[in-house]
Design a protein that fits this description.
The strands form 2 sheets. The chain has an 8-stranded mixed β-sheet, with helices on both faces. The chain has a two-stranded antiparallel ribbon with strand order 7-8. It is globular. It has 14 helices and 10 strands. The protein has a single domain (4-303), classed as 3-Layer(aba) Sandwich (Rossmann fold). Helices cover 42% and strands 18% of the residues. Helix 3 (96-110) packs across helix 4. The chain is of the alpha/beta class. A hairpin with a 4-residue loop joins strand 1 (26-32) and strand 2.
């Protein structure tokens, strides 16, 4: 259970960031079984439903600069299990792809959605692709923002550190502004940080770190998904998995994103029957924070195609 005082402090920080972008979302909680989990979904806007699945960078209002660029969209912003204000699950109990696909089907059922477009960032893109592979009729189109876990990349240095014994200390120590800026610079956001474009993000992300157990839960997840120096089978997408995804997929990758290279992701996308790669010059791992209008336009044109 979340400490209610911490929840209130965190929600205050969320409201501040949403308000900065002129957005006033509502929220609801979904009670799922098998696995038993309480998931929070934040809703913004009206129109065609689009499910947003976040990466390790954040959740909720970390999407705000992008959502402000979208019109005619009912944005359903999900906190992943253990992330934000959703409860955690045990990732050791089932194969990752099967587990997340099963969970997302139940999410769509609870939201009364027969099918949906999905925008996934980083690991959230992996969630979306696992669902699209297994349940063709439930997914229209998929947008993947930034690089995601992939066998060709291996386990990133930060994830190795997070899942190590040192990681147990990291996730309990208060995050400092300097530490967070360093992390953002490491994933390519140095110019935006230096220009002050991420000051509001930083204030919210520090509250996220302080008032939610998200990083402790994320550590548990990556420890469950690692196998030696690589990933557990069933976590990342193999070529044969990608070949089964019939839906249109657009990957939007920033040239400053250190998660793989544009050439590597072009090879990845080429395995998809209906995949395409859009490169955003100078953008980082969360490209909508560096180029919100460009990324928003790329998403809108794709969803309306």
């Amino acid at each position: 259970m979340h400490d209610m005082n911490n929840v209130e402090h965190y929600q205050d920080a969320e409201r501040t960031l949403w308000k900065r972008y002129g957005l006033e979302p509502s929220e609801r909680y979904l009670e799922l079984t098998d696995p038993t989990v309480r998931l929070r979904v934040v809703e913004v806007g009206s129109g065609r439903p689009v499910l947003f699945i976040p990466g390790t960078g954040g959740t909720g209002p970390y999407w705000a600069p992008l959502i402000r660029e979208l019109s005619g969209v009912h944005c359903l912003v999900m906190d992943r299990p253990g992330w934000g204000l959703s409860s955690p699950i045990d990732y050791t109990k089932d194969e990752f792809g099967s587990l997340v696909a099963k969970m997302l089907v139940k999410v769509l059922d609870e939201l009364d959605l027969d099918s949906v477009d999905i925008v996934g960032a980083s690991i959230g893109g992996l969630w979306a692709l696992h669902l699209a592979q297994r349940h063709l009729s439930r997914v229209h189109r998929v947008v993947v923002l930034g690089g995601m876990p992939n066998t060709e990349i291996g386990v990133p240095r930060f994830i190795k550190l997070l899942s190590s014994p040192i990681g147990a200390i990291m996730v309990r120590a208060p995050m400092s502004p300097k530490m967070l800026r360093s992390q953002l610079e490491a994933i390519g956001h140095g110019p935006s940080v230096a220009a002050g474009r991420m000051d509001d993000f930083i204030a919210w992300r520090l509250a996220f770190s302080k008032y939610t157990p998200s990083m402790r839960n994320e550590r548990s997840m990556v420890r469950a998904l690692r196998a030696g120096d690589g990933w557990r089978p069933g976590f990342t997408m193999e070529d044969r998995d990608l070949a089964q995804i019939r839906q249109p997929v657009r990957m939007i990758f920033g040239s400053a994103d250190p998660t793989g290279t544009a050439e590597m992701w072009q090879r990845f996308i080429a395995q998809l029957p209906n995949g395409e790669l859009v490169l955003v010059p100078g953008a980082a791992h969360q490209p909508w924070w560096d180029a919100p209008t460009e990324v928003g336009t790329a998403i809108t044109s794709f969803l309306n195609h």
